[in-house]
Write a structure and sequence with these properties.
The complex is a heterodimer of chains A (359) and B (248). Chain A has 13 helices and 16 strands. With 359 residues, chain A is of the alpha/beta class. Chain A has two domains: 201 residues, Thiamin diphosphate (ThDP)-binding fold, Pyr/PP domains (Rossmann fold, 3-Layer(aba) Sandwich), CATH 3.40.50.970; 115 residues, Rossmann fold. The radius of gyration of chain A is 21 Å and the shape is globular. Chain B has a single domain, classed as Thiamin diphosphate (ThDP)-binding fold, Pyr/PP domains (Rossmann fold, 3-Layer(aba) Sandwich). Helices cover 36% and strands 16% of the residues of chain B. Chain B has a seven-stranded mixed β-sheet with strand order 2-1-3-4-6-5-7, sandwiched between helices. The chains are: A alpha/beta (359), B alpha/beta (248). At the A-B interface, strand 2, helix 3, helix 4 and strand 10 of A face strand 1, strand 2, helix 2 and helix 4 of B. Strand 10 of chain A pairs parallel with strand 2 of chain B. The structure holds thiamine diphosphate and iron/sulfur cluster.
């Protein structure tokens, strides 16, 4: 296994190419510029296409178009740019067009700050566009996870004919770490994957011989629209099995941290320091924030657990609502929050845990 | 007896049109279908329709189709064409779609010289949503959102897409046609054919603008609409070839 040093953004782009991604369109925005820049260099080497779109709105529409041909296609942006993509993402979800996109998120609503934050949780998991659709959302906490999750995201997107989101942040996008890259899919496999989509793909069909490709982001008939909503709901329900999380030292834990992505990474190091001091602390780190790994919270021993500490780089807290649903009032839930581009400090988490464990 | 004219295989046989009497969208769907058949590209064509009455054709045609988000057809077509160059890709868009909400996507695709065919149906009004002012609405022409008529002081002037795109270097073919007489219908078909031929040859961006009527939202009957089109619309939007790089 060859290990290489790579920036988070670049590992995401390379993993996408290795998974068979042959089309990327995007618009510049910090802190994710290294993703389009990497694709601009890399895609021509593998016979793919890179387009710098005139806007995020146009870029996601280009990806909607490319993915309709059965080509694995991706876009990326950050926070306010992701808002602009919501139109096209909703179209992809409605028309069953499989795409992958990454949000290397930044601080606050509006243009916010360019520094890292986790302020887009609701947007990512609850309403990434109009119409009540849902997506699988992966939340990496290391460059390795970012690469592995991006690689797998294309397969999930294809399996479900639905968009998949990689929800990362400015730290993960910029950090350089050793990574073992997933294997490069050979060209023959990539073109076979594309050909396998031909029956529904927008590549041209002979009307005299076969059904046409008819990609519908909406329906004229209300019965068909309702049926489509029902089919989507069944798909979303089927994801319970796909929920992923890391449960760390929860067996004897009295305080359990709930944290994802970059917060989860910092919290992990807080857990190991606290354990050295004999503090019984553990962590549940959702790796998929949609579907949310609710079942992991059922495995806690609530006779022992004094409190859950929800740690997020978001003010107000957002994931805490999913944590509440999962905990079902079985113990109190407290929060430890930073935002605006302030990266949460390990010491802040340690202090919060100590305060709870003494209480 | 020799059959000299038949229904195009690009239009479904069993559909009842929901377009209004006198609407030229139906003529356009037929002309495009005839061209696709003539060039023998029906089986490898992907149509990208805008949102509006222009999009109603999705139900009538027999070949591949997708609806783009309102205004984004040129961006969607860019993605389809770049990822699958052997597929023939065209957009079909109204004036609200192409020249208002999608103005950025249209100009940018033209400026990149995307190898696609754009069919732009300019009826001077928002059809589907019920007669609101379009970027191509004539000065003085009444619209539901400009009840006193388009007033340049408040609304500016009609947008001329062929002329605007003619400022760019990349497009290869820009022509404005109409469908008010049999002769003009034949001219429009020729223009459409050329726009597709350009794409087959890999020449680049072609747009055919077709000035049409919307009797329903103009508040005129089909015959009066033709008169309005000839006297008013064609004065504001002169017919002709604005750019033909292939010819040059
Ligand atoms: C984002 C968005 N905004 C608005 C609409 C509503 N809408 C539907 S069709 C249309 C305009 C249609 O006018 P035009 O493009 O001129 O086409 P026509 O109906 O005249 O063929 C609008 C604004 C929409 N579907 N999506
Ligand atoms: S409203 Fe206008 S554009 Fe729409 S179908 Fe009727 S005549 Fe045609």
């Amino acid at each position: 296994m060859k290990r290489t040093f790579m920036k988070g953004c670049e590992a995401i782009a390379e993993a996408a190419v290795r998974s068979g991604c042959r089309f990327f369109a995007g618009y510049p925005i910090t802190p994710q510029n290294e993703i389009p820049e990497y694709f601009a260099r890399r895609l021509p080497e593998v016979g793919g296409q890179f387009v710098q779109g005139e806007s995020e709105v146009a870029s996601i529409s280009m990806v909607y178009g490319a993915a309709q041909t059965g080509t694995r296609a991706m876009t990326s942006s950050s926070s306010c740019g992701i808002s602009l993509k919501s139109e096209g993402i909703s179209y992809c979800a409605s028309a069953h067009v499989p795409i992958v996109y990454a949000n290397i998120s930044r601080g606050g609503p509006g243009v916010g700050t360019i520094q890292p934050a986790q302020q887009d949780y609701f947007q990512a998991t609850k309403a990434s566009g109009n119409g009540g659709f849902r997506m699988m959302v992966f939340a990496p906490s290391t460059v390795q996870e970012a690469a592995d999750m991006t690689y797998a995201a294309f397969d999930y997107a294809q399996r479900d004919r639905n968009p998949v989101l990689i929800l990362a942040d400015g730290v993960l996008g910029a950090i350089i770490e050793p990574v073992v890259l997933p294997p490069m899919r050979p060209d023959e496999e990539v073109s076979a994957m594309k050909k396998a989509q031909r029956s529904w793909a927008l590549v041209g069909h002979d009307p005299a011989k076969e059904p046409r490709s008819f990609i519908e982001p909406g329906h004229w008939s209300i019965q068909e629209q309702e049926q489509s909503c029902k089919d989507n709901a069944a798909l979303y329900d089927s994801w319970e099995k796909d929920a992923q999380e890391e449960s760390l030292m929860i067996d004897d834990a009295e305080i359990v941290i709930a944290a994802y992505g970059i917060s989860g990474r910092i919290a992990r190091s807080a857990v190991s320091l606290l354990r050295k001091d004999g503090v019984k602390v553990g962590m549940i780190r959702p790796k998929t924030v949609s579907p949310f790994p609710e079942k992991a919270f059922d495995k806690l021993n609530y006779k022992r657990v004094k409190a859950i500490l929800d740690v997020e780089m978001s003010i107000p807290a957002q994931m805490v609502y999913d944590v509440r649903l999962a905990v079902k009032d079985r113990c109190p839930i407290e929060t430890c929050l930073r935002s605006g581009g302030e990266v949460i400090r390990r010491e802040e988490i340690i202090a919060s845990v100590r305060a709870l464990s003494k209480a | 007896m020799e059959k000299v004219y038949g229904r195009t295989a690009a239009i479904q046989k069993d559909m009842v049109s929901s377009l209004c009497p006198g609407c030229m969208h139906s003529t356009m769907f037929k002309l495009i279908g005839e061209v696709l058949e003539k060039l023998d590209i029906l089986s490898r064509t992907a149509s990208v329709f805008g949102i509006g009455c222009c999009g109603l054709g999705m139900q009538y045609i027999t070949y591949d189709n997708v609806t783009a988000p309102h205004g984004r057809a040129c961006a969607v077509a860019t993605g389809v064409k770049r990822s699958t160059p052997e597929t023939i890709v065209y957009t079909y868009q109204g004036d609200g779609d192409l020249a208002s909400i999608g103005l950025g996507e249209t100009i940018s695709a033209a400026n990149r010289g995307e190898n696609i065919t754009v069919i732009f149906v300019n009826n001077g009004i928002y059809g589907m949503t019920g007669g609101q002012m379009a970027p191509t609405t004539l000065v003085g022409m009444k619209a539901s959102t400009a009840p006193g008529g388009r007033n340049p002081k408040e609304h500016g002037y009609p947008l001329h897409m062929c002329e605007i795109l003619n400022q760019l270097t990349a497009p290869v073919y820009l022509e404005r046609c109409t469908c008010n007489t049999p002769a003009n219908v034949i001219k429009t078909r020729k223009a459409i054919e050329k726009a597709f031929q350009n794409q087959i040859q890999g020449a680049g961006f072609s747009m055919v603008e077709v000035v049409t009527s919307c009797p329903t939202n103009w508040g005129l009957d089909p015959i009066e609409s033709l008169k309005f089109l000839e006297e008013k619309m064609l004065t504001e939007f002169p017919l002709g070839v604005y750019r033909d790089r292939q010819e040059a």
